[in-house]
Amino acid sequence: MMSTAEYLETPEQAAGRALAMLQQTGGLSAAAVWCREGVVWRQLAACGAAAGLPAADALENGRLPGPDGGALELTAAGQLLGWLVWRGRAPEAVADIAALLTGHLHCAVLRAEQAAARVANETMLEISLLAGEGASLERILPRLHRLMSRLMDASNFYIALYDEECATLRFPFYVDLHDPAPPAPDAVFPVNGANSSLTAWLIRGGKPMVLTRERILEICRQHELAQPLLPASFWMGAPLVNAAGNLIGAVVLQLYDEQTPFSSAEQLLFMFAARHVGFALDRVLYRSQLERQVWLRTSELEGANARLRAEVSGRKRAEKFQDVLFRIAELSNTSLSLEAFLSGLHRLLSEMVAARNCLVALYDSVNDRIAFPYCADEHAQSLQPRKPGKGYIEQVLHSGRPLLIDPYGSDVGAGDDDDGAVRPKSWLGVPLYCGHELLGVLAVQSYESDVVYNFRDQEVLEFVANNIGTALARVRALESLQLAYAELEQRVRERTSELDAVNAQLEFDSLHDPLTKLPNRSYLAKALRRAWDAYLAGSGDRFAVVFIDLDRFKLVNDTLGHLAGDHLLFEAGARIRACLRHYDFLARLGGDEFAVLMFGMDAVEECEAIARRIVSEFERPVILAGREVFSTASVGVVLADREHYRKAEDLLRDADHAMYCTKQQGRQGYTLFSHQLRIDQADQLALESELRRALEEEGQLIPYYQPFIDAGNGKLAGFEALVRWQHPQRGLISPALFLPMAEESGLITRLDRYMVNAACAQLQAWRAEGQVGEDIALHINLSSANFHDPDLAGWIGGRIAHYQLPPAMLHLEITESALIDQPETAATTMQALHSLGVRLALDDFGTGYSALSYLHRYRFDVLKIDQSFVFDLDRKEESAAIVRAILALARALDLDVVAEGVETGSQLAMLREMGCAKLQGFYFAAPAPAWGLDWARLARFEQEIRDAA
Fold first, then answer.
1. Residue 663: closest CA among 637, 638, 636, 634
2. Reading across the β-sheet that carries 593-599, which strands appear in turn?
3. Radius of gyration of the chain from its Cα atoms, rounded to whole angstroms
4. Cα dist. 895→416, 494, 829, 862, 864 in Å?
5. Rounded to two decimals, what is the model's pTM?
6. What is the separation, in whole angstroms, between the first and last Cα of the chain?
7. In terms of C-beta density within 10 A (0-12 exposed, 13-18 middle, 19 or more buried), how is residue 764 classed?
8. pLDDT tens profile 695-718
9. Could you read off the pLDDT of 633-660 as tens digits, one per residue?
10. In whole angstroms, what is the distance from residue 595 CA to residue 615 CA?
11. Structural contact between residues 209 and 237, judged by C-beta atoms closer than 8 angstroms
């Protein structure tokens, strides 16, 4: 028989068909079908006078249609999907029709969840890929906004970036449709101090926040924050952290009155997306910082290059001057006439200056006349000697300094003796000296507007003039020029050496860790690839990859500070290097992880010897901040093998997996990756997939119940629910095998909820059968991962209401790890659970930190003494003393106590003598499924305890 979901396409059609089938049987005056969509209810179909029927929210709150009607919950997998409500006589098939309708609604919900999960996964992938596209921060932020809008209502969205050094915030992206005064992207706001913003308060807290308008106003008053001009009705923010766990900013979503508040799933999705946004922005910011550093280095190099070019240009100019000087010296040593000498000088001068029109004037002080031994002018063929007048030549002779006349100067045309002569556009003249004696003037002039002399031409002309006086002046100038040339060559060599050193440093920095100066991950990848290619080609030796992780590094870093953590990393690198051979390759991968390539490794024993040496090296303490610190090492080793590997990267992956296996085995050791580990790795993935299917099916995950007895009268006091996995192919799987895997994969929260629901259902069944009363306690273990869920208390309350259980019967067992991992969240959640009436038990007390501050800060009702103390109770006085101390502490704090692991009569007698209230262990019964409990045997303990008393 096919289901309704296979015939119809939409929930509305399914609901209409169901109501039509009910109407065919007759007896109904009105009926309606409701379904839940997120946090709201929607009516799918109705018939008759459905307006008079109660709405879905009223039905959820306990209202019924009346004595002449009825309502059925449409639930699947413990989830309320909808309601079927009617007025009139219900047909016999109403339950079957409701079940078919529930199946269709459940399919619709699963399809919607699958589509939402697909969109969320695609969005997270796109967010992660943004950082690798190389775009700027200004281009990435709008794209992040669009991606967040896929997941939820992000019409009012902004991102704040935190500058830890300056303790300031800026808002590079801010979109709010209601904020009348949004901050400018380049504006900077202080994080600390009075009147700081709500975002600054979020940064200081460092934890995600979900606030209502009333809570926002209350926080602003309590912490003296600047109150928003238009407070949002719903405010949700999360800090952005980088891969190292450092705050880099915050992302915030705001909703106003006309918008629907976010559901719990959307809140969790937002927190999850915030982590991806933080990692993406961290990579973008890091790339921007790196690009800026490269830009600064490039600018420095370009400046140095420009200076070098200028120096080279000056050198070439000096060389040209030197060549001219040499040729002038050659001319002066010839037997040419003065005119021929000056003509040759003109040709040499034309190579450096636009000297088409050139003249040489010599002053005869005895006769007070100016002669022109050389004149090359396009408008005057020759000049005759004359008396000094008021021309440009006379001005140079009078001042003894160069004279430059440009076309824009006020002196153009002034001082020309011949009014009929063509006036030059530009004129340049320099005095000629021999020692300190003024000989005359060397001048050039231009009649064209595009040829204008400048001070550089003046320098050239002065240079030539200074080198035609005497041979002695020429020799001296030549020596000075040669000296300048040698100095310039030296400076060029020095600058070239500096440039080579800068380039070498840049290359070194790109391939090495800045802290330890060891090769980085990029350098390791290149070396690993070369070694693998050589090994495959047969030209290289077999090698091994060692992956090293420092244990408890985060504790040292958080306790003693980052400076101490840096010192520890430097010391770790030095110790690892001391254990290696000189040709082995050591690299720091990042954080507290190191990797080693050990060449020439043909046997496993050689790898193990070095691995043991590395582990033993970390048994010695490290002195940090004046105190001894112990940080052990977990090591994973993999040997290169052509049979099992195809890529070099797989070696590093398996070495990492071997290191992780070392951590699972208690840390401070090494693991050699083997074929069995490879099989176990694949089996672990398969087991995780099978556990996911087991959570969706019925019958594989079975609650086992172990009773505990009242030590005073022997009566049954309660049960502890323990999960067992009856795999269809593997058989019964130990919890020690699949519970750690569930913790690692994130399935533990689903498994805990599965157990809570199943145990509550069984407790309801026992009460209905009369097997137990309200004085029986049901203990259920709860992992620390559940404290990430803000809706935990609400969900537990829903289960209690659904199964109509007294809240005090439910005891949730919490380990100390939950209090360590999430102290603030744990306190809030425990308070909410206490408000429901649920009782809380601290499990395995005495095996962890067992800090008395936990009992002071958190409100517990029960302490469970760990079985390790009970096991040695009748053999070791220390165990007995610890148990007495725990019982005395519990009596002082008015806490109930349950002793676990009671297996012998002597343990039972000693615990009763000590005054322990409740006892649990194999002495009374082993854990068993509900159908395997021996109720008669449990009842006999009351008589046995009475007889023993």
1. 634
2. 585-590, 593-599, 543-550, 633-639, 669-672
3. 45
4. 119, 81, 20, 5, 10
5. 0.41
6. 64
7. middle
8. 888 888 889 999 999 888 888 999
9. 999 999 988 888 888 888 888 888 888 8
10. 14
11. yes
